[in-house]
Amino acid sequence: MKHKFTSTSRRMRALVGAVAVVATIPLVLTGCSGSGSASSGSGSKNLTIEDYYAANYNPIYKQCATTVGAKLTINHVAGAGLIAKVLQQASSKTLPDVLMLDNPDVQQIASSGALSDLGDYKLDASGDVPGVRAANTYKGKLYGLQPATNSIALYYNKKLLSDAGVTPPKTWDELQAAAKKLTSGSTYGFAMSNINTYEGTWQFLPMFWSNGGNEKNIDTEKATQALEFVKSLQDDGSMSKSSINWAQADVNNQFLAGKAAMMINGPWQLPLLNAKKGLEFDSVPIPTRTGSETVAPLGGEAFTVPQTGNKDTMALAGKFVGCLNSVKMQKVIAGVTGNVPTNIEAGAAWASDHPQVASFVTTVKTARARTGELGPDWPKAATKIYTAVQLALTGKADPADALKQAQSQEQ
Questions:
Q1: Is 90 left (phi over 0), alpha (psi -120 to 50) or beta?
Q2: In terms of DSSP H, where are the helices of 31-190?
């Protein structure tokens, strides 16, 4: 199961987690030379950090290294191989001093015993949004701090909605009516990713969770209502049948080309959206069946302190992670990544100063960690969810039967 989780989770990460750094950081992950853990020798001021970011992120690390008085070695690795590498490093006792993980991976690595409790360094996430704390907590202990987070919202083309006399929807009925009215010629009213990977699950979760769906058992009436709603958008022609093959980047391309009037996507798309001449857009939280608060998934990366065996260096690493999660650095990192600060008060201030991410700041307040219910077993449910969506949208089963079939499948 671990191997399957590793390979599939990296596909999600490439487009949901690490891709958030696209705001100013290229997606090409460049390697930096490093010599494994530099934590040998009591009282050493050397630290190594390992991540799947690009070198453009290095100035942020160096700023905190200066703050805590450490000399830093930075190792960037390919996202697809990070978890396998970490597990190998844990086995060979060559873990880095600071390790960045996509937040759904924190509990898995913590359960292996490779991470230290951040409470040992007097660190906590008391001011952060609840979902972020939950994502980085395992068996009551905090193992990761996440300076910035992201989620998804409903983007809309302001001109197309204005011309059609449509206001941004708040309920499923309003979304369906708006999507139908906005569908014309080669333009669909609505677009989302329904691809058969964790990315498809990520995009379906706001409908699923907001309507009372639970990943412990997806074969329920509430889950069926959510899947029926998505299928109804395809059935009435408001959403392209190609959505079963679209990643989030493909959905964004449809929106940029004027082939979708509304779309579900994340803040990491803002640079491309802002670069499109003549495109006027905005976003709102994803509509729910009753107009209640949206419950969406949380993205973003956390920083952890691995069990290297050198208590002095681990304490220094704890200070470094604490620096990265300070309110000051949360704002710096949010500015670099296009995400939002995880501290509730900092997020509110950020939304005021950065109106384009205001809907995401609102959404993350009630957003959930993907591992919140099932912990390290989350990938099993995620696979069942995207399998059900595919079965329904390809016509192989009606929504209720699709969810029943998917729930019964072995992982």
A1: alpha
A2: 58-68, 82-92, 103-111, 130-135, 158-163, 172-182
Q: Are 298 and 132 a contacting pair, CB within 8 Å?
A: yes
Cα 394 → chain centroid: 26
- Annotate 229-260 with b (16+ C-beta within 10 A) or e (fewer): bbbebbeeebbbeebbebbbbbbbbbbbebeb
Q: Which two tokens stand for residue 147?
A: 């300076």
* Contacts by 406-409, CB closer than 8 A, 24 or more apart: 406/218, 406/219, 407/217, 407/218, 407/219, 408/219, 409/384
**Residues 6 or more apart in contact with residue 154 via CB below 8 angstroms:** 168, 169, 175, 262, 263, 264, 283, 284, 285, 286, 287, 359
Contact, 74 vs 42, CB < 8 A? no
Q: 201 near 387, Cβ under 8 Å?
A: no
Where helices occur in 185-260 by DSSP H, the ranges are: 198-210, 221-235, 248-256
Per the structure block, which two tokens stand in for 303?
């920083």
Residues sharing a CB contact under 8 Å with residue 163, sequence separation 6 or more, in sequence order? none
Q: What is the pLDDT of residues 167-206, one digit of tens each?
A: 999 999 999 999 999 999 999 999 999 999 999 999 999 9
The model's pLDDT over 42-83, given as tens digits with 9 standing for 90+, comes to: 445 899 999 998 777 899 999 999 999 999 999 999 888 899
Q: Six-digit token pair at 90?
A: 């844990």
Question: And the tokens for 81?
Answer: 């191989």
Q: Are 263 and 192 in contact (CB under 8 A)?
A: yes
Task: Residue 98: name the closest of 49, 135, 30, 53 by CA.
Answer: 49
pTM above the 0.90 mark? no
